[in-house]
Design goal:
Blueprint: H1 15-24, H2 30-44, H3 59-71, E1 93-96, E2 105-108, E3 111-114, E4 117-120, H4 126-129, E5 134-138, E6 141-145, E7 150-153
Antiparallel strand pairs: 1-7, 2-3, 4-5, 5-6
The structure holds zinc ion.
Zinc ion binds at residues 10, 12, 17, 21, 28-29, 31-32.
Length: 162
């Protein structure tokens, strides 16, 4: 069963939680964004442990190392993180159509469109897309957006930036 759109079970306040938000296409909460920022900052300062590199060892050498390891104090190796999609802010973050605001930059087919106005939607899909469907316009470009459609936008500049 898909968890897309499901908020339940997200481990808020963790990098993992942040990824769960993204995977489920639910805008990240502040706690998760903070976790991600803290993690990035730690990585920049070189505090995050490197992923252990796979090593090719001969059977004999491996056996010797095993002997040595059983004698030595056990060392907890960092568990490699689960496979993840590369972090690509340029492909945007998903938000709901109803949350779209003037000034947001829609990422669509690799192009960026900064919304300068909304126009009423007068097409025939209104019943399907829902009340509140509008056309997000950027110059001559326009995109029909239902209130619950998922739209990808560039991350908004934080309003509480220091
Ligand atoms: Zn969260």
């Amino acid at each position: 069963m898909s968890v897309i759109g499901q908020a339940e079970g997200i481990e808020h306040g963790t990098v993992r939680g942040y990824k769960q938000h993204r995977y489920r296409q639910i805008p990240a909460c502040d706690a998760c964004k903070k976790a991600l920022r803290d993690d990035r900052a730690a990585a920049r300062r070189g505090e995050r442990p490197e992923r252990a590199k796979p090593q090719r060892t001969s059977r004999r050498k491996a056996a010797e190392e095993l002997d040595a390891a059983t004698e030595a104090t056990p060392v907890l190796l960092p568990v490699p993180p689960p496979p993840q999609l590369p972090d690509r802010p340029e492909i945007g973050v998903p938000i709901e159509g109803a949350d779209l605001e003037i000034g947001d930059v829609i990422v669509f087919l690799g192009n960026h469109h900064r919304i300068d106005r909304f126009e009423p939607y007068t097409g025939s899909l209104r019943a399907e897309l829902g009340e509140g469907t509008r056309v997000a316009c950027a110059g001559t470009w326009g995109m029909t957006v239902g209130p619950t459609s998922t739209v990808r936008i560039l991350p908004r500049p934080r309003r509480d930036a220091r």
